[in-house]
Write a structure and sequence with these properties.
Elements (H helix, E strand, L loop, with lengths): L6 H22 L3 H10 L1 H4 L6 H10 L10 H17 L10 E2 L10 E6 L2 E5 L17 H15 L6 E2 L9 E4 L11 E4 L5 E6 L3 E7 L4 E7 L1 H5 L2 H13 L6 E5 L12 H10 L7 E5 L2 H6 L17 E5 L1 H11 L7 E3 L14 H4 L5 E7 L2
The chain binds zinc ion.
């Protein structure tokens, strides 16, 4: 009879330990033989590539697992594509200097000038300092505004062009610029086929949307907050481009600039009702977000008076997806999905880069700018 400390009992253990050591050693050594062996056993380690379906199945079978369901490859591919598209769509802004955010789908048009501004690189001492405020706000001086505008026009490559902007009133009013001397008054959309003018809308959470007819050389820019969106300003904008310039929707390219994201855009039931009354797809545009800890931290004032801590269920608040709403309008107007780009920045999440009226209350304005080279 053998005792606990007998050699027969220990031998297999020692063997196992030995194998384990070899395994560890082979990982850290660099000899060609080891690499070859490793490559043979695990093809993915040497060459950086994804395993094929059959390799995954074989590896799992080796480990004693039966694979009865294929891995969700389409999801992985979808995610990879989304990441790639996001990288292509937006060059990340650099802090501190005037940055021009350009839409990927508009960049290759030689006669086009376009860009979305950030808050950085200006002369306004308000709003955190060095702010590129491009609106005539109460806190800023006219002189600072003019200097910022000069900096912005230079950065976008249109120093000499006259700027056409409007007193924005959250409407669906669109003006056509027919001569360089036109001065639009109140409204929220501008269209033109006149070269040598710079059209602009000012935003701080609302979406700036640019339309370009690459065939007939016509452009438009629109200010789409929830009020403009519910009045279909962008859908109407496509219609106005068709009516005025004979634009075919398939020739139109659209760029949606930075605005408040679904993550941050809590709205009241009245807003949801307005969308319900206008759009069959209204419910797709809203997502109920529950009163979570994260939201408490983000918007303490929103929840201050709702309920005492620990009492009752958290209230859900609808959040509006403005980008989706405007994308839907473009699609309804027959602009092909592949012609639409959106800069995936949330102005409220990224107040380091953008002005956000919702987040900051007192803040500056950015610009969505478009022009035809003269
Ligand atoms: Zn956000």
């Amino acid at each position: 009879m053998h005792g606990i400390g007998s050699s027969r009992r220990l031998t297999p253990n020692r063997g196992l330990l030995y194998n384990l050591e070899v395994g560890i050693k082979s990982k850290s050594t660099n000899s060609k033989a080891t690499q070859k062996l490793t490559a043979k056993v695990q093809p993915s380690r040497g060459a950086k590539r994804n395993l094929t379906e059959s390799e995954i199945t074989a590896s799992l079978a080796d480990a004693g697992f039966h694979r009865d369901r294929p891995l969700a490859a389409p999801y992985a591919i979808k995610k990879q594509r989304a990441e790639r598209d996001q990288k292509r769509a937006a060059k990340p802004p650099k802090l501190g200097k005037v940055e021009v955010l350009r839409a990927e789908n508009l960049q290759s048009i030689p006669w086009l000038i376009h860009g979305f501004s950030t808050r950085m690189g200006g002369v306004t001492p308000e709003y955190g300092g060095g702010a590129l405020n491009l609106g005539l706000t109460r806190e800023d001086t006219h002189e600072n505004f003019e200097r910022n505008l000069h900096l912005w026009k230079a950065a976008v490559g249109a120093s000499q062009l006259p700027l056409k902007s409007m007193r924005q009133i959250h409407s669906a009013i669109i003006h056509r610029i027919t001569t360089v001397d036109d001065h639009p008054t109140a409204g929220d959309g501008l269209i033109t086929n006149v070269p040598g003018v710079l059209l602009a809308v000012k935003t701080a959470d609302c979406l700036p949307v640019i339309l370009v007819d690459r065939v007939r050389k016509a452009i438009g820019v629109f200010h789409a907050g929830w009020r403009g969106t519910v009045q279909r300003i962008v859908e109407k904008g496509v219609g106005e481009m068709r009516r005025n310039f004979g634009s075919a929707p398939a020739d139109l390219l659209a760029a949606i600039g930075p605005g408040i994201g679904k993550c941050c855009y809590a709205v009241g039931d009245d807003v949801m009702d307005r969308f319900d009354s206008q759009f069959a797809y209204s419910r797709e545009l809203f997502e109920d977000v529950f009163d979570s800890h994260a939201l408490h931290l983000k918007y303490p004032l929103l929840f201050l008076n709702q309920r005492a801590p620990g009492h009752g269920e958290p209230a859900a608040r609808p959040h509006l997806d403005l980008v989706k709403a405007n994308r839907n309008q473009l699609l309804d107007a027959k602009v092909p999905d592949t012609n639409i780009s959106a800069l995936e920045y949330c102005t409220s999440c990224r107040t380091d880069l953008f002005f956000s009226h919702r987040k900051e209350q007192v803040t500056g304005r950015m610009m969505g700018t478009v022009g035809i080279r003269s």
